[in-house]
Fold this protein.
Amino acid sequence: MDFRYDLIVVGGGHAGCEAAHAAAKMGANTLLVTMDMTKLAQMSCNPAMGGIAKGQIVREIDALGGLSGVVTDKSMIQFRMLNKSKGPAMWSPRAQCDRQKFTSEWRKELEKTDNLHIWQEQAQQLLIENGTVLGIETSFGTRLYGKAVILTNGTFLNGLMHVGLKKIKGGRSGDPASSGLSEQLAGMGFLVERMKTGTSARIDGRTIDFSSMTEQKGDEEGKSFSYLFKDFRIDDQKSCFITHTNKEVHEELKKGMEFSPLYTGRIKGIGPRYCPSIETKIITFKDKESHQLFIEPEGRDTIEYYVNGFSSSLPLETQINALRKVKGLENVEIFRPGYAIEYDFFQPTQLKNTLETKKIRNLYFAGQINGTTGYEEAAAQGLMAGINAIMKIRGEKKFILGRDESYIGVLIDDLVNKGVDEPYRMFTSRAEYRILLRQDNADERLTKKGFEIGLADKERVTILEEKERMVNEVIDFLKRESLDPKKINGLLIERGTDEVKQKTKAVNLAARPQIDLKELIEKIEGYKKLSAIRSDRFNEIAESAEIKIKYEGYISREKSMAEKIKRLENLKIPEETDYSELVSISTEGRQKLKKIKPENIGQAGRISGVSPSDLSILLMYLGR
């Protein structure tokens, strides 16, 4: 049989699912190859989406027309907005999900996507001719042909799982590893390295004493990740619970250190700095007597719980004994132990900013194969790889998001220019323009871009335009209306801010940090005429208007800074530039420029090892 497609996506994790959906939605004949159709977008670690900076990424994926936000909402059992005590640039949505429902909802969405086919088998090797990928060959010898191929193999490439001194091959618990692709690509000159991550034990909720823990409920005012859901609520939110390790726990853990694969040198991969194993924590932070643990429900209809913060590869006996020293877990029973997994990844500096490899045409990498960690980072890469693969097949302009446009843009720019020396995790601190890249305005930044490439539906644009109209209506209303001291000073005193002595524009009062915009509006006569007030989206509209008013100066300043930096992105560097001839550039600078081959001066300036003086010389070379 002749199996021919526009695009073949290898791997059914978060990156693969977003890549396959995006390509098919854009009209391409797409094939998703996975080893197990029942585990699409499996939550291999904790059952949650979003969090610090990660929540912004999920909203950006949704704004462009991806599915991570939609599926999160359909499987959500708790919602919390993190960092509310800080400014809106730091607010980050996070959802606890029903693990099984998350996977089943992804499968439903993919199965109803036109142009998308699924093939259950392991990809064994790539079909490559004259430096161009032509398709893949599976473990049963099936040849599948595509104009482009995206590899999203996650932790499966030569995956090796460790519990104490025991190790078995696998991509995650219960699933086999994948071999063949790494060896083939290494033979073609790709730099292949090893990385490590881990997961915690899953425990039996019937054996947990929740009464001795701190309950962490979801927000009373639940919100959605997807902009499609206007009036969203979660019925019967599930709580998480907080407890802590202690000296006794740490002593038990130390007893097993001699059997730790990490400390005996059996694991060679690079571990995550920002999500370390519990054994790494007690060694790195010797002075800390306790570490916080989150006991998270795996779903609505299960007794299984995840111990967030207790990732471990120590022997089973050590894990159980240590857990039973934790307050509330004295009688705990486990379903399966925590384990470490090491796997192959490819340095992302081997990629273009479209995520296409530099060595093989029409071959793309996305997800943990690029050295990242986290469902959200993987999904974002999958989405962008899927979009760009189809744009290239069609001969259209590549789709690149700038660092001032999205966290997705920051993520990919960091990967391809800087590479990774540890599993990459997104933080708000990685973005220079955080006030521009808020979770509330991802639709304003990206939805029209998604619509232009055929990914976001017209419905999304309509919802966005309605929001923009009502936000402007509220702001214009506040600019027109003035408030008499007699009418407003009571509220000002109550909120601890200065009284006014004469009529004052409502917009100036709304700019005060102590004033809640919704309260202020109600002090203005005729406020009920506003269409935003009558909308079921009023909370969303008021929040957006309030941020724009209160942070107008900061927003304008960041936009101005971004525009200045953008000029450097317009200074293109010819692809044929021979950096070895530019002897005035430092040796490290020449080596890095030659290796990464930046497309413009802005990109060159973000490469580690390229100094400002190197850039000046490069500008002179370009006649600037």
The two ends are 57 Å apart (CA to CA). The first strand starts at residue 3 and ends at 10. The chain has a mean pLDDT of 93.
